[in-house]
Write a structure and sequence with these properties.
The protein has 339 residues and is an alpha/beta fold. Helices cover 44% and strands 16% of the residues.
């Protein structure tokens, strides 16, 4: 017989998961008729609280599982740092699994965390959400047992909570500002086809369309190499130039790609920002270390981590919380753009 989860109980009783958690916790903030209904469903189906229920206050281990694809990635490493710090402030410890980018490894790591009876799971980075919904099965399976929190991605499913930046809007705004400065040949340079990567590319495309300008596929270039191979990125841009693809601005999907664009400009003795403009993304430490300092979109990573942990703590406390929070990115202008 299949073991029922707290999600099953909420569905059978016609109430939210938060309401079921309040009943499990003995909260007085539940109407007697609702409490009796939930308890009746539990009794009818022989339900006993599992690891998720413990995470709601019954002998909780107060431990959160964190999945991260690559801890050497600047953005992901910073996210894990902020997440762990916020969790400690809330009285939670954490278990970190670095999964890599293969689906099978993500699924295996998810099962490992569930077996360790963590109270919730945080998926750090948009690469955990796949275009193929079949590959998102492990998210649904986990969410049937405990809260799943997604950083910088969105997935609409019960017991899944998301905090993300509107990457599409941010890149569209940057693209429009460059176009309005008279730069029509803007190269969009990206190295990820993740949820976030696709949203950024969509923003670039919408920028051109909003100005009634033609989109050219050769100005949307994917770098297939390692995320820290700056020399390879620079050579990739040089290869485009040698093929006759000329451009006077680069909008990069992260700051590392943008630093490669700066090196490309230096190779050709281009004067920034008069002759050539570059915009990065993430507003990482690299943006301030470059020469000239890099204009970059701040996707408000620390705010997103704070929101996600706040949501998590309240969900585990039995409160109803929004399943998606979307923040607006902030453009930090420095010396690589005229605006």
């Amino acid at each position: 017989m299949t073991r029922l989860t707290i999600y099953d109980i909420s569905k059978l009783a016609g109430v939210s998961i938060a309401t079921v958690s309040r009943v499990l916790n003995g909260s007085p903030n539940v109407r007697p008729v609702t409490k009796d209904k939930v308890l009746g469903v539990m009794a009818q189906h022989g339900y006993t609280p599992n690891a998720f229920a413990r995470g709601l206050g019954l002998n909780t281990m107060r431990t959160i599982g964190i999945l991260c694809a690559d801890s050497s990635d600047l953005y992901l490493a910073k996210a894990v740092y902020h997440m762990e710090r916020r969790l400690r402030e809330k009285g939670y410890s954490s278990v970190l699994c670095c999964t890599g980018y293969d689906f099978a490894d993500k699924e295996s790591a998810s099962r490992l965390l569930l077996a360790q009876k963590v109270d919730a799971c945080i998926l750090v980075g948009s690469n955990f959400v796949s275009e193929s919904d079949t590959d998102n099965r492990y998210i649904r399976d986990a969410a049937s047992q405990l809260p799943v929190m997604l950083l910088n991605a969105a997935y609409d499913y019960p017991n899944v909570y998301c905090a993300l930046c509107d990457d599409t809007e941010a890149v569209q705004n940057v693209t429009c500002r460059l176009l309005d400065c008279g730069i029509k040949d803007i190269l969009f340079f990206y190295d990820s086809t993740s949820y976030s990567g696709q949203k950024k590319r969509a923003g670039y495309r919408e920028g051109y369309l909003s100005r009634n300008l033609p989109l050219r596929e050769e100005y949307q270039q994917y770098f297939p190499g390692s995320h820290d191979d700056v020399k390879g990125m620079e050579d990739f841009l040089e290869g485009l130039f040698q093929k006759g693809i000329t451009f006077h601005a680069v909008v990069a999907s992260d700051d590392i790609l943008a630093t490669a664009a700066l090196k490309f400009a230096g190779r050709h003795s281009l004067c920034l920002p008069q002759d050539f403009s570059v915009v990065g993304y993430n507003n990482s430490l690299l943006a301030a270390c470059c020469e000239p300092e890099l204009t970059s979109v701040d996707n408000r990573l620390e705010d997103l981590c704070s929101i996600l942990v706040h949501t998590l703590a309240n969900v585990l406390g039995g409160q109803d919380m929004p399943q998606k929070v979307v923040l607006t990115g902030k453009l930090v202008t420095r010396k690589t753009t005229v605006f």
